[in-house]
Amino acid sequence: MLHFLWAGYVLYENSYSIYEFSNLEIGKWAEYYLGQKTNFHQTSCLFGKLTDNPNDILIGHPTWHGSNGVDDPTKGKSIRNWVKDNAISTKDLAHPNTYILMPWVPHFPKEWIMPCIDYQLLNAQKIFALCGNIWIDRTFEKQDDSLQYGVRDKLVHCNMGIASQNFPIHKKTFNKIGNRQLLHVSNLGTYKGFDITCKSLVNVETLLHVASSSFNAPVGKVQVDLGNNDKFVFKFLGTINNNDPEINSWIVDNCDFYIHTATMDAQATTILENCARGLIPLITPESGFSSPHAIYLTHDPHENHKIIEWALNLPEEDLLKRSELLREQIVKEHNWESIFGKIWDVITEDIESRKIKSQS
């Protein structure tokens, strides 16, 4: 039995034909593909004891605080630690077949509230790191006493996945030069670099559309103060539903580029979603997505200004070719079948190698 400790996804009749929030997508497709390999149990990383069977497999996200890090003073702190709780005996630190699956960066942002993270990473057999290769490389470059560097040899790089078949509407034409527009979608966390995005677009002749569930403003034009007497206006879309054909059509018709200037993003799912729509990504390497067909920005707004101006004036045939190749890359390198196939192969190889070692 494989226990998948994530967000406890509940399957519905049409689950596989719709596109949902990224964390729900992970649980859904884990069940679809890993469930073809073994008996599969979908559960939550907030739960504790699940099994006494030493042959079972546990793979899950580090415990993610259910209340965004705010403990209820009437209840105290959460006592659940699924890695510790599933140890077979009191002398063990974890179940022998414990694996972590999580986004990975060499410095965890303050928004990532994971109270058991040290214990869980140190006692897992492998850590399946959803991220760009940049973050695996930079973890090995650290050479310090950080937790990330300490567990580096357990890391197994995995791309973030996307069910691209559920983004059937994609760009076939680009807006004319002078009318091209940009899109950004994120939680606007500190590591998303949205301030760099705004500063990079000051006095650029384009319109930026922004969607976020974390921004408290009415839908419409929003003006932000960037300091040094600089102001920037973008159009706020509110929260978008990726499964809504009207929204997908609107994005494809109106937006030509997806911009993401993160400073430390594991591998932004929104980049993959908008590559599947055919938009051209204007991104920093630290946004986690690597492609010869993307257009790369920096953390210098003045340098970005020049790059964006150049991109906005590219011929349509150039953009169409990039769009086609990006969609092909997403289908080939970011499909869930390959990702969970790799995870399963690494787990079975690890279990077998430990079994052979114990018999020798």
Task: Give the topology, please.
Blueprint: E1 2-6, H1 22-34, E2 40-44, E3 57-60, H2 82-85, E4 98-103, H3 117-122, E5 126-130, H4 133-141, H5 147-150, E6 155-158, E7 181-185, H6 194-200, E8 207-211, E9 220-227, E10 230-238, H7 245-254, E11 257-260, H8 269-276, E12 280-283, E13 295-296, H9 301-312, H10 316-333, H11 336-359
Parallel strand pairs: 1-2, 1-3, 3-4, 4-5, 5-6, 7-8, 7-11, 8-10, 11-12, 12-13
Antiparallel strand pairs: 9-10
Helix pairs in contact: 1-11, 6-9
Protein name: Glycosyltransferase family 1 protein
Verbal overview:
- The chain has 360 residues and is α/β, with parallel strands linked by helices.
- It folds into two domains: 185 residues; 170 residues, Glycogen Phosphorylase B (Rossmann fold, 3-Layer(aba) Sandwich).
- Helix content is 32%, strand content 18%.
- The protein has eleven helices and 13 strands.
- The strands form two sheets. The chain has a seven-stranded mixed beta sheet, sandwiched between helices. Strands 2-1-3-4-5-6 form a six-stranded parallel beta sheet, covered by helices on one side.
- Strand 4, helix 3 and strand 5 form a beta-alpha-beta unit.
- Helix 1 packs across helix 11 and helix 6 crosses helix 9.
- It starts with a strand and ends with a helix.
- The mean pLDDT is 94.
